[in-house]
Amino acid sequence: MVIGSLPMAISRKKLFKDALQLEQQDRVELAKLLIDSLDSATEQDVEEAWAREIDRRTAELDAGTAETIPWETVRARLRAPRG
Q1: If we measure between CA atoms, which residue out of 37, 31, 52 comes closest to residue 3?
Q2: Statement: residue 2 has pLDDT above 70
Q3: N- or C-end of the chain: fewer Cβ atoms within 10 A?
Q4: According to the model, what pLDDT value does residue 56 have?
Q5: Which residues pair with 3 in a beta bridge?
Q6: Are 23 and 31 contacting, i.e. CB atoms less than 8 angstroms apart?
Q7: What is the largest CA-CA distance in the chain?
Q8: Helices (DSSP H) in 1-83: which residue ranges?
């Protein structure tokens, strides 16, 4: 099996078995690193989109152009029976 341009010199089973020998905190960090390696530019795009949306909403609030709903109204809507 080839990963990138390097041949895989160790089997996944062996790698997993070796990883299980790590201390718990090291396994947690390894798991995080592996998960982070799966998060491609798509996640970065999502983060950037949320940052733009937050900036847009904040600007609307600051300008007084945002339509806001009082918390009491929101709470009443959430508690209202649906159906």
Answers
A1: 37
A2: no
A3: C
A4: 97
A5: 6
A6: no
A7: 62
A8: 12-20, 24-38, 41-63, 71-79
